[in-house]
């Protein structure tokens, strides 16, 4: 009987660990998506800024 209780406790602990790992992975994935979106916005802003600078530096104007 005690062995069954110990096995049940160990299984519950392992289940908790697995759920914790899955939750942590989702947090990291969300953070990575947010960082990628922010980097994309920054890249688009720099691209626009470079285009404006090139247009202003154009000697034909």
Amino-to-carboxy terminus distance: 90 Å
What is the helix fraction of residues, given as a range?
over 70%
By secondary-structure content and strand pairing, the structural class works out as: mainly alpha
| Radius of gyration based on Cα positions | 27 Å
Poorly predicted residue ranges: none
Order of helices and strands: H
Quickly count the helices: 1
Count all strands and give the number.
0
Estimate what percentage of residues fall within beta strands.
Answer: under 5%
**Outline type:** rod-shaped
Biggest sheet character:
none
Please explain how this structure is put together:
The protein is mostly helical. It is built from one helix and no strands. The chain has one helix at residues 2-56. The model has no long low-confidence stretch (mean pLDDT 91).
């Amino acid at each position: 009987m005690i062995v069954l209780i110990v096995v049940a406790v160990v299984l519950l602990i392992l289940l908790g660990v697995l759920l914790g790992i899955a939750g942590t992975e989702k947090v990291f994935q969300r953070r990575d998506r947010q960082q990628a979106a922010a980097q994309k916005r920054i890249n688009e802003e720099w691209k626009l800024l470079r285009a404006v600078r090139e247009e202003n530096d154009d000697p034909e104007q």
